[in-house]
Amino acid sequence: MNDHVKVTFEEIFAEPHPTVYSFDGVWTTSYKVFTNTKLWCYRISTLLCAVPLSVFWGIYFALLACCTIWCCRPCIKAYEIELSCVRGFVVAVLDAIYRPCYETMGYLFFNIRVKVLKQVE
């Protein structure tokens, strides 16, 4: 999960060419500084933000679930029940008017064959 935020030192900083490189001490020190800074910034920011944001998102998803279960789904089910008679009427009209026309058109074009001839020059 969250693969897009998994960043390593080598993905950010890379030497331009194998023959052009910095001192080993600079590279290892930079690696340690980068990884520790990233680790401690993440720890401090989660220390400050994790609990309040957990409360916020817990409330949000609880209200969303409540609204979905007690408001949205019953409304959708009521519309399905109410519109079932309209659906029956529309299906009957389509079967009576459009279906014969389309079946007739299908029978008319059923035996049409297209033959493509390629002329040789």
Automatic annotation (TrEMBL):
It is a peripheral membrane protein. The chain crosses the membrane at residues 40-63. Keywords: Cell membrane, Golgi apparatus, Membrane, Transmembrane, Transmembrane helix. It is found in: Cell membrane; Golgi apparatus membrane; Membrane, Caveola. It comes from the Eukaryota. Pfam families: Caveolin (PF01146). May act as a scaffolding protein within caveolar membranes. Interacts directly with G-protein alpha subunits and can functionally regulate their activity. Belongs to the caveolin family. This is Caveolin. The lineage of its organism: Eukaryota, Metazoa, Spiralia, Lophotrochozoa, Mollusca.
